[in-house]
Amino acid sequence: VGWMMMIANVVYETAQKKAGLSRAAIDFILLPVVVLAYAIALGPWFALAASLVLAIVWIAVSLIDTKWQSGALSSPHRGLLGKVPLPIPGLVIDLAGPFLSRGDPNDAGTWPERHTEVFRVVILNPSQVVPQLPLNVTVESTTSSLFVESGSVSLACPNPGEIASAEIAVIALRAGPGGTIQVRVCHGDKSWTRSIRVQSITDAQPAIRAAITKWKGGRRAAFAWRGDQDLYDPATFQSADGLRIALGLSRRFRLPSTLFLSGRLSLVEAEHHAFCDHFGWDRKSNEIEGFIGFLRDEVDLTAMLEFPMQSERDLAMEIGNHMYLHLGTHVAADPGNGWKSHAWIGEGDYPWHHGEVGDSFTEQRDNAIKNADVIRNLLGVEVTSWGVPGRVYDENTSRAVEAAGIEVGTDTNASAFTNVLRLVPPHHPKGCDRLVEITKKYPGDPNNAYKLAMLKYWLHAARRAGGTFLFMAHHHLLLYEGWGCYHITEEFFRHVLADCDGDFYVATVTALGRYWRDVLSPKTRVIELNVDQGRVVARNTGDRDLEGLPVEIEFSDGGSLMVLASVKAGHEVVVWEAP
Fold first, then answer.
1. What is the predicted pLDDT for the residue at 414?
2. Model confidence over 89-123: pLDDT tens digits?
3. How far is CA 246 from the centre of its chain?
4. Strand pairing partners for 348?
5. Closest by alpha carbon to 516, among 441, 442, 425?
6. Among 8, 46, 12, 44, which Cα is nearest to 28's?
7. 325, 324, 354, 351: which is closest to 340 by C-alpha?
8. What is each CA distance from 229 to 67, 132, 237, 415, in whole angstroms?
9. pLDDT computed for residue 21 by the predictor
10. What is d(CA 216, CA 212) in angstroms, rounded to the nearest whole number?
11. pLDDT at residue 579 in the model
């Protein structure tokens, strides 16, 4: 059903783009046609009933669209409604721990006697409402065989964009049936309840198998927000002011983002001046120096950022490579191609290109290298990820990007058909040794409920498949058209973090790609698991420390559990040894 609904929306989107019709106009045309078809095929009474049902559905969807675009992340206290203005922020609550599967209950597997595990409840306030009431966390065991060291606790409810947390230590006291730990978080008249289920408690069992199949922290799938900036342009919010709005949203949700930056017209003032002078535009070239200062001084440009994002600076994001010359759009115009708008690979001769005109591999490699040099020199950042400019790629792109020193690419080999109708798992593109490709999902820049519904469909498809969901929203968030995209994006972030049972590892593009490359890739993984005489040992043969590795261990009696392990580069640790 979800697939059929998604396809219907694709048809609408195509009609809007190709015919220039609004969605309301398409509805106006389509409704009488559909009703007439029902009348001819099944009779007037069926047509009348169908028209009423369609009208009701249209009204309902319009109300949902209005709600999502309004950006409502709080609600009034029902007990005091009309008496005292006491808004209750809608909180995001994440239960972190080694779960074999998530939901209600969260499956913690089979525990041996005396096994101890610590779970963490993270409470985020993503709204703009300052809370006035305390936060109560209650933890109870439904069985005497599971002892909870920490019970009820009262916390200060976090302010907007802040988090509060509580740890839950659970001990399996004796062998026998398992049980459930109930976790309840209450704030005002709002409550959130989840349970941790231990299937059974056994005598000490030797391990017979061990594997890592999930994302960091035992999350089932992964999520990243990527955008891009083609040029400095305050009119379209591609500026410090525009980024403050987008990164403020990121900060409230503690959800990191990756901005792919094209340096030629974003960071090089002389190039920007020449471009604007040629077309007769005033895109404020003299503000670029201040924009560079903003990025250097006010934004944490760390490549590895994860939810819940922590930084000494209020604003943070990863900077990625979006090519020096952004091909495929109007900003591709350059003296090297005769100021040709939407220029393609091989259509120009540029001073940074060290090969022959028409040499696609060399042009793309040098384009990426030039952009990396500009970003390094002006921002002090080593870029490790890459985003396709204007859908411009060919059979050489993946190899060229890898040759430029990039670790993680997005859409190095993905057609528009792939973006719209396929869910592509992370992979190493053909001809590449280590480059990781993470493909984005359509639609980008969602600004209505229909696009958001499509995104939610694909999000849950990625969740079931255990893959990645790369969300595409430019950091200008279409603010030059209104606040619709901002609030729809806000609702999508809330859905990812609050409604998906903590099943997503949320991080920057580089963080996702590096984890898959080092831990999950059959070709490049650096974690080796060895099971010998019931003992599980993990060895890290790579060059970076790895944390939160979700090692799933199976015992000789058929039971299993997960252990979260950390292994330093070049070291090994004992993950499991029967007591």
1. 96
2. 999 999 999 999 999 899 999 999 999 999 999 99
3. 15
4. none
5. 425
6. 12
7. 325
8. 29, 39, 10, 21
9. 87
10. 10
11. 65
Q: Which residues of the chain have pLDDT under 70?
A: 579
Long-range contacts of 185-188 (CB under 8 A, 24+ apart): 185/91, 185/93, 185/121, 185/123, 185/135, 185/136, 185/137, 185/138, 186/135, 186/136, 186/138, 187/88, 187/89, 187/91, 187/131, 187/133, 187/134, 187/135, 187/136, 187/157, 188/77, 188/86, 188/88, 188/133
Dist CA 296 CA 284 (whole Å): 19
Strand 257-261 to strand 318-321: parallel, antiparallel, or no bridges (unpaired)?
parallel
Fill in the amino acid letter for 245: I
Residue 29 confidence (pLDDT): 87
Residue 109 near residue 101, CB atoms below 8 Å: no
User: ω into residue 351 within 30 of 0, thus cis?
Assistant: no
End-to-end Cα separation, the chain, in angstroms: 49
Closest of 11, 48, 17, 3 to residue 30, by C-alpha: 11
Rounded to whole angstroms, the Cα distance separating 182 from 271 reads 60
Single out the residue of 286, 294, 310 nearest to residue 244, CA to CA: 294
* 8 Å CB contact between 194 and 122: no
Q: E-strand spans in 460-579? A: 468-472, 504-506, 527-532, 535-540, 546-555, 560-567, 572-576
Our CA dihedral for 238, 240, 245, 249, rounded to 10 degrees, sits at: 100
Token digits of residue 397:
């792109």
Can you read off the two tokens belonging to residue 173? Answer: 């006291």
493 neighbors 255 (Cβ within 8 angstroms):
yes
Instruction: Report the sign of the C-alpha dihedral through residues 393, 396, 399, 400, in that order.
Output: negative
Separation CA 302–CA 259 (nearest Å): 11
Phi/psi of residue 92, each to 5°?
-105, 125
DSSP-derived pairing of the beta strands 257-261 and 221-229: parallel
Supply 204's token pair. 């000490």
Q: Strand, helix or coil at 463? A: helix
* Cα Rg of the chain (Å, integer): 26
Please state whether the predicted TM-score (pTM) of the whole model is above 0.90: yes
Q: How far apart are CA 489 and CA 387, in angstroms?
A: 20
